[in-house]
Amino acid sequence: MASSMDFLKACENRRTIYQITNKIPISDARVEEIARHNVLHVPSSFNSQSTRIVVLLNDEHKQFWEFVKEVLKPQVPEEQFPQTEKKLDGFKAGHGTILFLNDPNPVKKLQSQFALYAQHFPGWATQSNAMAQYHLWTALEAEGCACNLQHYNPIIDQKAKGHWNIPQEWELQAQLVFGGYAEGAREAVDKGGKQQQPIEERLFIHGAKN
Ligand SMILES: Cc1cc2nc3c(=O)[nH]c(=O)nc-3n(C[C@H](O)[C@H](O)[C@H](O)COP(=O)(O)O)c2cc1C
């Protein structure tokens, strides 16, 4: 079994990288393997398994970002659109986009089965979905990919659902974009470090021994 250090190192290595390319150091089959691992091993409340994952690779990934451009164009002031398009082309330059959705049906079923907890199930589904996002983000970066997390929902929902046959009721939560590192992208992020609020204001430990 890998040591816990490997896991902690992988968590530390996970960063937001915007400068990405379409060449990743692993195969699409390996991406699928990691996505399957995610679906099988990320926990959910009452084991509801309400997260749905749609992996878009290569041309399908590019199509997703073309759709985002299409839906944003009429919504963004004309003079600002070149800037928006440049940003979206940055995501499109990657290799893949992973859509994270929630299926409300397992949530509704649990709500009717366990009335006492009814109000909590939607929040727990969101938390489980976020765990799935973190798993894939960390795992892909551990494999040498560069990732960033985006939220073009709900503006992109209808186009994406129509094109990739995604059930209407599934709720899009987030999009994880990944690719290879553009030259110098990792070094730039590492050099910049990470701004941290004081740990003492964020972490509280009671009862530690030795
Ligand atoms: C819940 C959540 C939502 C985020 N949404 C976005 C987003 O919409 N667009 C974006 O570029 N980054 C987004 N981020 C990335 C954060 O800005 C980033 O993780 C944070 O600044 C820390 O930097 P790091 O990822 O390099 O550690 C999000 C992160 C989290 C955890």
Question: How confident is the prediction overall: mean pLDDT?
Answer: 97
At CATH's second level, what is the architecture?
3-Layer(aba) Sandwich
How many distinct domains?
A: 1
How many helix segments?
A: 8
Q: Judging from the principal axes of the Cα atoms, what is the shape?
A: globular
Classify the beta-strand content into a percent band.
15-25%
The first-level CATH class is given as Alpha Beta
Organism: Aureobasidium mustum
Domain Nitroreductase: 13-179
GO biological process, one term: cellular response to oxidative stress
Keywords: Cytoplasm, Nucleus, Oxidoreductase
Describe the 3D structure:
It contains eight helices and five strands, in the order αβαβααβααβαβα. Strands 1, 2, 3, 4 and 5 form a five-stranded antiparallel beta sheet that branches. By secondary structure, it is an alpha+beta fold. The protein has one domain (about 25-180): 3-Layer(aba) Sandwich (NADH Oxidase), CATH 3.40.109.10. The two termini are about 25 Å apart. The longest helix has 22 residues, at about 120-140. Flavin mononucleotide binds near residues 15, 16, 149, 150 and 194.
